[in-house]
Each structure stands twice: as C-alpha cells, then as structure tokens.
Amino acid sequence: MKIKQASAGILTNYEVLELLRSRGASKDPTRVMASLSMSELTVYDYLVETAACNQTKDNIIKYLEMVKMYDLAKAEILNVLNLRPRAPPIMDSMIEKCEQRFGEEGLLELVQMVVEVLPAPPKNPKPDEGSDENKAGGEVDDDVKKGKGSSDNNCNTSVEAMEIG
Known about the structure:
By secondary structure, the protein is mostly helical. The chain is 44% helix and 0% strand.
C-alpha cells in the first residue's frame, strides 16, 4: 500500500494497521529497533487485538459494495467497518435514525451482512477480560436477533477516497 497524498482523508483501522506494519511494527520483542514512536506502537498493539488484523482488501471491497444499498453516510460506513457491530442495538447507536431508515428487519439484515462479510477479531482475549465463547463466533445468534449481544472492534480501506453510492 502506498500513500498517494498525505492527509487526503480519513483512514480505516485496516489502513492504519497496514501502514504501521510497513514501517516495521510487529509483536516481535526486537521491535524496539523499528523506527516507530511509542504512541505508534501503542496504536499497533491496540489494532492487532481488533478485527483489522483479520481484514483484507477483498473483505473491505465486498463490504463497500454490499453496504451501498443501505445509503449510509461515509462516517457511518467507516464506523461500521471499524467496529463490526454484531447486534442491532449497537448498530442502532452507530447509524443516525436507524430504526426509521431501515426498520427492524432491515437493521437485522445489515447486522447479518456485516457479520458475514467482515471477519471477526482475534479470539485471544486479554487475561483480565472474560470471554464468552458463544459470542466469539462469526454468526448472528438468537440473542443478537432479539436485540441482545455485543460489538467487536474491527477495522478496514479509505472510505473518504472511495466512491460510495
């Protein structure tokens, strides 16, 4: 990935992660030799725990194609891409007037599309966090369909530069 124009627009978490990797960021103990600041390494450490580390350009392109039918704003598209919500209440909080725009059925379809198209984050929770194995999978389960559930942080290619809609 090459930067064509600095500060040209917003970036997805995937793009930030790829940029940091291209500059030498890794979980390798010798990473102190990389030409990255501590804040860049901190951002890298955060992003490798999110879905951005499992996303690909193909996932993102497919998501961007499929999300066109929902007529979302660029900021909404980016938020959904980066956070990969798995439950309607989380999606509802990310999209303006979500219930009015899509109804309950449309909202559930959007959540299911996101779960199917965008990969889940790594399944290695930090030691101090609990893990619910039923929620770690990639399917929308009965709790999610009933409006219960959780959101995963995920990441992905520059929404600002892409033609949407």
